[in-house]
Amino acid sequence: xxxxxDKQGTNKGAWSRQEDKKxxxxxQGSWRSLPKATDLHRCGKSxxxxxxxxxxxxxxxxxxxxxxxxxxxxxxxxxxxxxxxIAGRLPGRTxxxxxxxxxxxxxxxxxxxxxxxxxxxxxxxxxxxxxxQPQQCISxxxxxxxxxxxxxxxxxxDAGSCFEDDRMSAGSSHDLNLDLNxxxxxxxxxxxxxxxxxxxNTEILESDEIPTxxxxxxxxxxxxxxxxxxxxxxxxxxxEMGHVREVPELEVLCGY
DNA sequence: AATACCCGCAACCGCCTCCAC
DNA sequence: TGTGGAGGCGGTTGCGGGTAT
Length: 256
Prior knowledge:
Elements: H1 17-26, H2 34-38, H3 44-55, H4 66-79, H5 83-88, H6 95-112, E1 115-116, E2 121-122, H7 124-132, H8 134-137, H9 140-146, H10 164-170, E3 198-199, E4 202-204, E5 213-215, E6 218-226, E7 232-240, E8 243-246, H11 248-254
Antiparallel strand pairs: 1-2, 3-8, 4-6, 5-6, 6-7, 7-8
The chain binds a DNA duplex through residues 3, 5, 12-15, 30-32, 44-46, 48-50, 52-54, 81-84, 95-97, 99-101, 103-105.
C-alpha cells in the first residue's frame, strides 16, 4: 500500500516560497485534506510539519537563551528524549528545534564537560578530574551536586546546574522563574526501580515525610502505587496527561 | 581558486496512539 | 471489540552553507 507521500506528483524536499504562501493562507486544519483544498502538491504530513516547525505565527526563531538551554538539560534529565514534552515547556520552540539543538549543541557541551548526555552522569575521567582539582574546574552548584545531602559518595549530578554559575557571573537577566533543582531534605522515599511506564493506579502521596516538588507546572514527586494484587508502594514519577510515569532519572538526581 | 570536510537544520520516514465507525 | 484513517512523535537523512586545506 503506497504511503500518502508516495503519490505521483507530490513534491518533496525544501519548500518554496509559493508553497509556504499557500500553506500560510490555508492555515491549520485537516492536514490530509488541506493539500487538495489549497492545490499544494504535498502530503498532509509534510504540510503539518512545515506549519508546526516553520510557519506557525508564534514560533520563536534564533539562538536559544542560556535559560532555555538550562531548562532543556534539566527537563531532558527528567523526561529523556521526549522532545515534544520538553518543547512544550519552552514557549515558541518546536520539538524538532529542541531536538536539533540538543543533538548539535548541548550533547557536545555535556560530553566536553565529561557528562554523559544520555544519562546525565559524570564519566570516569571527569570524576578523576574533579577529585584532583575541585576548586579550579567545578562550580559551586556542581560541587553541591557531588555531595548529596545524605552524604552518599555517588558520582552523580544534575548537568543543568553545571551551567548556572557561569551564567550568574555573566549576569543573565532572563528569569523564567523556574526552580528545577531537585533536592530532598527528607528521608528518601522508597523508589520503585524499573522500566518507565504509565501507572494507572496511582495517587498523589500526601505525607509530611515525603517531599513533592512542582517543576514549572510539571508535577514531580512520589506517588503511592496500588497494584492489582493489592500491594502498594511508592514511585517517583512525573504526571503527564492524566498518567504518572516513573522517572528513574530522579533517583540519580536525588542521589539514591 | 578549487576541493574536501564539517556542521546545522529542515524535512522525511516509520512507528505509535487516538478516535470514529 | 476490531479496524482503518489521521495526527503525533522521535530517529534519521541529506542538503546547503561555512571553514579548512
